[in-house]
Amino acid sequence: MGKRFAWRRVAFAFSLVLYSLVFTSCGTGDLTNSGTGAGNPGSGATVSLQVEGVQLTNTNALVLSSGVEITTAQIVLSQIEFRTVEECQNGSSGGSSQVDLEGPYVIDLLNNTSSPSLDNINLKEGLYCRIELRLDKLEDNELPNNIDITDPIVSHSIYIEGKTGEGISFTAVLEIDDDFRLQNQSTGFNISNGDLLFVIFNLNTWFQGINFSDATVSGGEIQINKDENETIQQTLVSNIKLSSNLLRDENNNGELDSSEENLNNNDLAEGD
After folding, report:
1. Residue 31 belongs to some domain of the structure
2. How far apart are CA 195 and CA 258, in angstroms?
3. Cβ-based neighbour number of residue 36 at 10 Å
4. pTM (2 decimals)?
5. Nearest to 195 by CA among 41, 29, 23, 11
6. pLDDT for residue 121 is more than 70
7. Is the residue at 3 inside a domain?
8. Cα angle at 190 between 184 and 196, to 5 degrees?
9. How far apart are CA 255 and CA 233, in angstroms?
10. Which whole number is the average pLDDT over 220-239?
11. pLDDT tens digits, one per residue of 241-270
C-alpha cells in the first residue's frame, strides 16, 4: 500500500458499530448478501466498524502539525456500501452480495457522536475489495432526531471550523454530493466473524497543499464555500477523501494499539 507513516489514536474519534442484522436509525438499510461463487462472501459474520479522526502529533489537542487548529468537524454520510472482490473484478456497481446502508448519518469527528447511531448489520464472511461511502448534503426534511434545524451542518455535507497557523478563523461550509471509497484491489481484505474494523481519517493531511496566505479574507475571517476560496475547497475535499484508511483490531482488545496503527503492517484499504 502507498501511504507510510505512524498513526496516533486521539480522543476525538466517533464510532459506527455494525454487528448484526437489524440496525436502529432514521434511515433504512437494504441488506442483500446471498451471493455464491468464487470471491463472494460465505457464512454470516458479526463485524464491528469504527470511524476515527487521528493526528500525528504527541498531544490530544486539536492543533495539527501544520499549526492549523480544528474546533468543529462534521460530515454527512448518505450511504455506506460493501463490495466483494468478485464485484470489483467484474466491474459491477452492485450485486446480490452487496450491502447498502442508507442514511443520512451526521458524523461529528471531534465529539465522538453519530446521529442517528449506526449499529447492527450482518455481513458474510469472505473477501471484499472496498467500502464505498457517499458524502451528501443534509436536507432539512431528513434531520435525524438529535440534529436541530439550526445546526450548521443542515443543507451541507461537510462543516469545519478552526484557525490557521496565524490565528485567523476559518469556516468551511461545503455542499458537495460525492462518493469516496476505501479499496484494496490488489489483494482485497478478508472479513471474518468477530472482526473490529476501523475507518480512520488522518487530520494532519486535510490542509496539505493549502496556503491560507493566498485566501480571500472577509471581515477578518476566511470563508471556504462554493462562492469564496473555491480552490481551497477543492483541495480540502480531495484531502479528506485521501486521508481515510481501513485498519483492523488484530488483537481483539477493542481499540487500535500502536502496532496496529502503523500502516506499514496493518492497512487493509486506502481512500481514493
Report:
1. yes
2. 18
3. 10
4. 0.74
5. 41
6. no
7. no
8. 105
9. 33
10. 95
11. 888 888 887 777 777 676 666 655 567 888
